[in-house]
Specification:
The chain has 265 residues and is an alpha/beta fold. The chain has helices at residues 17-27, 55-68, 82-94, 120-127, 138-145, 152-163, 209-222, 227-243, and strands spanning 3-11, 31-42, 47-52, 73-76, 100-102, 133-134, 169-172, 182-188, 193-199. It has a single domain (3-243), classed as UDP-N-acetylmuramoyl-L-alanine:D-glutamate ligase (3-Layer(aba) Sandwich). It is 37% helix and 20% strand.
Length: 265
């Protein structure tokens, strides 16, 4: 049984954050564990409140899990502030945690901020250089690089510049750009570009897509898949999860984490 750790915020609505991560881990047949960085009062309409966990306790959660159970891959999501980013980065170094997937979460689907502006530099300088894979969307890449990304050419240039941060692989998600009615992700390993394409679906039930996609990549890495296989498998999974999204709540409903999972009991 492969062991996957999510270090992220809790979504009380269950569509994103550690809830989405743990559901994804279960769908991929790996054992999920969590270190919670923040609690959110959240539903499909937005984020009504945030309670940040103390950095020391976050470190203690990670130490507790890693020292006993161990970990085969790690995914980070909402880290909230500079101090949390730094303590998570320290934990990754201290415990030599492998197969780190960094989803640089900054804003919720509703537009609510999930990361302090002052923490963005810490993510770039301390956490991303340790990552096997980073999975920014267009908005997050624009913030990290301080420039606009308007088309596929810009995405490729951005992926090249993001790779300079020190990470091993970049997956720049293009879901926010309408590129020939397709959702195109740019994958870059420092040597060549690969484009992962899927049809653009007309649905508002996309809450938690970024969390789910990054967790699916981490699950594949934890199972020992080559990086590109883990990324391609995650792309297929999130595409199917969006296509079968759940019409829950009155805002952005969640993706369907059980897509393709067959009941065996």
């Amino acid at each position: 049984m492969k062991r996957l750790l999510t270090i992220a915020g809790s979504d009380s609505g269950g569509g994103a954050g550690i809830q989405a991560d743990l559901k994804t881990f279960m769908a991929f047949g790996v054992y999920g564990m969590s270190a919670i960085t923040a609690l959110t009062a959240q539903n499909t309409k937005g984020v009504q409140g945030i309670f940040e966990i103390s950095p020391n306790f976050i470190y203690q959660q990670i130490q507790s899990v890693v020292s006993d159970i161990g970990v085969d891959a790690v995914k980070t999501g909402m880290l909230a502030n500079t101090e949390i980013v730094k303590v998570v980065s320290k934990a990754v170094r201290d415990f030599k945690m492998p197969n780190l997937v960094v989803d640089p979460v900054m804003v919720a689907k509703s537009g609510d901020a999930l990361l302090a502006e002052s923490a963005r530099r810490a993510i770039w300088e301390e956490l991303i250089p340790q990552a096997m894979v980073i999975t920014p969307n267009i908005f997050e890449a624009e913030v990290l690089l301080n420039r606009r990304i308007k088309d596929l050419f810009d995405m490729q240039q951005a992926a090249r510049d993001l790779k300079e941060s020190g990470c091993q692989w970049v997956v720049l998600k293009g879901g926010h750009l309408d590129l020939e009615n397709q959702a195109i992700d740019v994958v870059y390993d420092g040597q060549k570009f690969q484009l992962l394409k899927s049809p653009r679906m007309k649905t508002r039930h996309t809450h938690g897509t970024g969390c789910t996609f990054a967790s699916a990549i981490a699950a594949g890495l934890g199972k020992g898949y080559p990086v590109i296989k883990a990324i391609r498998q995650a792309k297929k999974y999130i595409t199917a999860a969006i296509e079968n999204g759940l019409a829950l709540g009155t805002g952005h409903g969640p993706t369907n984490h059980l897509v393709g999972v067959k009941t065996k009991w």
